[in-house]
Request: fold
Amino acid sequence: MSTQIYLAQARASLNSQDCMALYDKWAATYNDEVGDEAQNYVAPVLVAQVALRSSNNPARSVILDAGCGTGLVGQALAMSGVKAIDGLDLSNPMLTVARKTGAYRHLAQADLTRRIEKADDTYDIVTCVGTFTAGHVGPDPALRELVRVTKRKGIVIATILEEIWVSGGFKSEVEKLKAENLVTVVSDELIDYVKGHGDKAVLVVLEKVNRTWTT
Reply:
């Protein structure tokens, strides 16, 4: 099956089970296909670069890669010296590929449409790439959960497919988190996503406000 067909099916998923089944099938060839020049999936490296710039000491940062897939973000971080990276993903076959990279301290299966089984204020930086797209994970409760597990003054870096930034409720959820004084919006800029497709994404960088979290 071609990458375009996989992408189309992934973005047409109706629920997390459909999405998981698709990525389970795609896992073995995913890296070769999205890394192909025709696809040019640049978002993982761009997000890793932002994460590295967001830390005064990347080697000592504790990072969560939410929706880590096969580990593209983790690999980019590890190559720059980050040592403590945890990853979560819905697909066990994708996690198997990620585990082989050696980039991750810990990997676990997780459904990001539900509460993340991590304590409040755990991570210096949380990244989320390729998860907030059509047919995948919506903004609520996922964005709030990413913020919850981030340390105070820590950073959340996420890509949201341009076409669902407003229509999918992501822009309004970011504004809600800001209005509740849970985050400050460091930036929200349009970037290349899957460059070979001409896809764009909004790259959102949030800083968690330094105050006690309540749920």
User: Anything to note?
Assistant: The mean pLDDT is 87. The helical segments are 3-11, 16-34, 43-53, 72-78, 92-101, 142-148, 162-165, 170-179.
